[in-house]
């Protein structure tokens, strides 16, 4: 009887253990690439933004991302020259679910150069996502803010804006390129950004009568396919 019990227990033990699943190699559990990667230009820096992956390539949730790696290439604008490459890591160390948005500001920009960026997520050793598609721009010294902005009410729903044309950059050198202007309208209901215009004037035909409305103008230098923004003008306000 004792031998029978021992045999049964041994059989149950062996059956319960079974074979353990082989460990998943790091490459098989690497993160998905960051998504919605874009580069937004400001007068003094370029802001890189992307959504951090929350799953690995198998569809399992990621508990932590160790770092984001940025690849930056730089080359002279409009002429042959050396292409400079730089790759560096930005520590993240957080749960993607708690902080899904990654941002990085690159202030090391040289006028007359074009830049291209890619990023990827790093979970750990040999567990690295694929690169995002590249995003790029060409950089020049930004234009000065427009001066003498005025706003006049023409009709109950129409406001006419004028300002001095911008011809100099922030260092007071002549601009090399066409300047466009982007008008922003602020009301208690929120902000409206209008498409860029080439003239130093603008008709707002959608103003709300009786509502305090403020306007500012942002200059945009057209430079090798990039609109380089300058500082906005001071706001002017009125009640149409």
From TrEMBL:
InterPro entries: FN3_dom, FN3_sf. It comes from the Bacteria. Residues 145-240 form the Fibronectin type-III domain. This is Fibronectin type-III domain-containing protein. It comes from Thermosulfurimonas dismutans.
């Amino acid at each position: 009887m004792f031998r029978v019990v021992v045999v049964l227990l041994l059989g149950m033990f062996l059956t319960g253990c079974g074979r353990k699943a082989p460990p998943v190699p790091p490459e098989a559990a690497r993160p998905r690439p960051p998504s919605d990667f874009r580069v937004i230009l400001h007068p003094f820096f370029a802001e890189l933004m992307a959504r951090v992956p929350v799953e690995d390539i198998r569809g399992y949730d990621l508990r932590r991302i160790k770092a984001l790696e940025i690849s930056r290439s730089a080359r002279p604008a409009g002429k042959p020259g050396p292409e400079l490459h730089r790759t560096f890591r930005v520590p993240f160390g957080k749960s993607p679910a708690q902080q899904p948005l990654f941002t990085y500001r690159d202030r090391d920009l040289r006028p007359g150069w074009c830049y291209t960026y890619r990023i990827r997520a790093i979970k750990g050793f040999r567990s690295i996502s694929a690169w995002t598609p590249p995003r790029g721009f060409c950089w020049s010294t930004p234009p000065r803010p427009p001066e003498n902005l005025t706003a006049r009410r023409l009709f109950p729903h129409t406001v006419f804006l004028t300002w001095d044309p911008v011809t100099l950059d922030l260092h007071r050198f002549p601009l090399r390129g066409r300047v466009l202007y982007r008008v922003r309208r602020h009301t208690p209901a929120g902000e409206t950004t209008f498409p860029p215009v080439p003239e130093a004037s603008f008709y707002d035909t959608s103003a709300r009568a009786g509502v305090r409305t403020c306007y500012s103008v942002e200059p945009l230098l057209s430079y090798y396919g990039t609109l380089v923004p300058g500082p906005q003008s001071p706001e002017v306000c009125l009640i149409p």
